[in-house]
Write a structure and sequence with these properties.
InterPro entries: Class_I_gatase-like, DJ-1/PfpI, INH-QAR. The chain has seven helices and twelve strands. By secondary structure, it is α/β, with parallel strands linked by helices. Strands 5-2-1-6-7-11-10-12 form an eight-stranded mixed beta sheet, sandwiched between helices. It has a two-stranded antiparallel ribbon with strand order 3-4. A two-stranded parallel ribbon has the order 8-9.
Amino acid sequence: MKHEQKSKTMNVAFLVYDQVEVLDLNGPLDVFVKANVIQPDSYYCFTVGKTKEAIYTEANTMALIPTYDLQTCPKPDMIVIPGANPDQIMKYSKDENFRETVLKWIKNNYNTGTVVFTVCTGSMLLSGTDILTGHDITTHSMLLDVLEQHNPEAHVIRNVRYIDQEQLITTAGITAGIDAALYLIGKQLGQETADTIVKLFEYQNSKADVSV
């Protein structure tokens, strides 16, 4: 059956913050960008930061200026939350200002129907927001025990690349974000589009997942 393109462009917000892991961010972002080349106007992809000030990626190798800040960005249909070094993640999870601005923005959008897609340790950022409550979730293999300790009300799944819980998607480490993004493109735009992106990437992806 031929896939019919959605009539509505989906707003996809990619969260950026200081010390964000570059491939966590750019892997899924490039998947959505390529999907837009194949099926124009399917997605409006943009970065959003706490402010419009430049942030530095992991190891301060690159400065990024967000497209929008939390106050000016369009209403997102999906928020992609890349991870960072675990020490950095734990620092943010204890930062009251970060929780009351960035995490509150994510939670408010989630409560109004926005899909949340975390990559790698990005799921740890959501600990304490109630977004993970009652869901099957995952993260980088080296942080699974910590994720479980901080989220006893969630069900941590091991040995999977990504988990689709409809409004919440979580992934394993780093490159799993690419796999999950490809999966979502297949789900939303058709498998032919996802397969074309795999060919463009020359990428050997894993299709192991848990879908509930």
